[in-house]
Design goal:
2 helices; 154 residues; single chain; 29% strand; mainly beta
């Protein structure tokens, strides 16, 4: 998981989801409109690995297309946020430990085994089919981080 140590972008995929895995259409954020899981193209992902990027998180934004992965992280807050978010706590193998929806102005409890936290707009994770026990993979995109095509996780 060395490629999760730098800020950057990538694609988030549910383990087992492949191209053409769903019959439903998706919106621009990669949410399925009826199938209940992410499409095979993956979910746009921002990776916040530096202290500065993790501290900034989603503050000051009015929304997010896709998801934000905070790493390392075991808890989050929504103080100063403008919108409700879904939060998934992930273990070191990128397995989902818990999924919660947090309205603005809340403090999340730390999760004992959590090593990463995934954030998205409220309702997105349910639409993707992200539930406790699911595994995700992260595929880095080529660009400024130079780690294109490398996979992390399970």
């Amino acid at each position: 998981m060395g490629d999760l140590r730098r800020d950057g972008t990538g694609l988030l995929r549910l383990a087992g989801a492949t191209d053409g895995a769903t019959d439903g259409a998706t919106d621009g954020a990669g949410r399925a409109d009826g199938a209940g899981r992410a499409d095979g193209a993956g979910i746009p992902l921002e990776i916040a690995a530096s202290y500065r990027a993790r501290t900034r998180g989603l503050l000051g934004r009015t929304g997010i297309a896709g998801a934000l992965l905070l790493t390392p992280a075991a808890s989050v807050h929504t103080l100063g946020m403008r919108f409700a978010i879904d939060v998934a706590y992930l273990d070191r193998r990128l397995r989902v430990l818990a999924v919660r929806t947090m309205p603005p102005g809340r403090l999340g409890r730390p999760r004992l085994r959590a090593r990463h936290v995934l954030e998205a707009e409220a309702g997105a994770m349910a639409a993707w089919g992200l539930v406790p026990g699911a595994e995700v993979t992260v595929e880095r995109q080529a660009g400024r981080d130079g780690a294109g095509g490398h996979r992390s996780g399970a």
